[in-house]
Design a protein that fits this description.
The protein starts with a helix and ends in a 7-residue tail after the last helix. The relative contact order is 0.14. 47% of the residues lie in helices and 16% in strands. The chain is an alpha+beta fold. It has 6 helices and 5 strands; from the N terminus they run ααβααβαβββα. Strand 4 and strand 5 form a beta hairpin. It is elongated and about 90 Å long. Strands 1, 2, 3, 4 and 5 form a 5-stranded mixed β-sheet that branches.
């Protein structure tokens, strides 16, 4: 009996030790690896170029990016849903790399809603989804503290290979707006 009792307590102690080590590793990873990024995709589609990382790290004023994406578009055309997921992932990467200087807001503009009015106010393009003319949106509006606005009126999947370029150009234009010419 005594040997089995000793084995039980040894096993229980081993389980507690393994659990403590696992918790310790998780706490360490949470504290130290918070900004670590690992892109395991085949084409490294979420790995930002050195130029983009430098622009994001050098931002001096906050920028707000507002993504207007109609969920109905992705539900009807899965190609757009997959592309919207990639755009959102890329925007989250930009946000993470900008050290708090980019705020990302996501909107699903429903027909005849205030959100749709906002999307139109920014100059985003609504495209008809059906015969009734229901419009859907998939665009980006960016603003800075000086109320400079830049947009990508509609994300076209055929331009996916230029996604980083388009996003970085928009951020750069907001970070260094040119004064109006009179």
């Amino acid at each position: 009996m005594r040997a089995s009792s000793r084995r039980f307590w040894s096993s229980a102690l081993a389980v507690v030790a393994v659990a403590a080590i696992a918790i310790g590793v998780n706490l360490f990873a949470d504290a130290r690896l918070q900004n670590a990024h690992l892109d395991l995709t085949a084409g490294k589609i979420y790995t930002l170029s050195k130029g983009t990382r430098e622009i994001l790290a050098g931002l001096k004023q906050p920028i707000t990016l507002r993504l207007y994406y109609s969920q109905a578009l992705g539900a009807r055309l899965p190609l757009y849903g997959e592309y919207a997921d990639r755009v959102q992932a890329m925007l989250r990467e930009y946000t993470a790399r900008a050290h708090g200087m980019i705020r990302l807001e996501l909107f699903d503009p429903l027909p005849f809603s205030r959100t749709e009015d906002q999307a139109l106010g920014y100059g985003l393009t609504g495209v008809p989804l059906d015969q009734r003319g229901t419009k859907v949106y998939f665009g980006l509006a960016g603003t800075n503290l000086l109320d400079t606005q830049r947009t990508i009126p509609f994300f076209d999947p055929s331009r996916e290979r230029f996604l980083e370029y388009d996003l970085t150009r928009l951020v750069e234009q907001l970070a260094h707006p040119k004064p109006p010419v009179s």
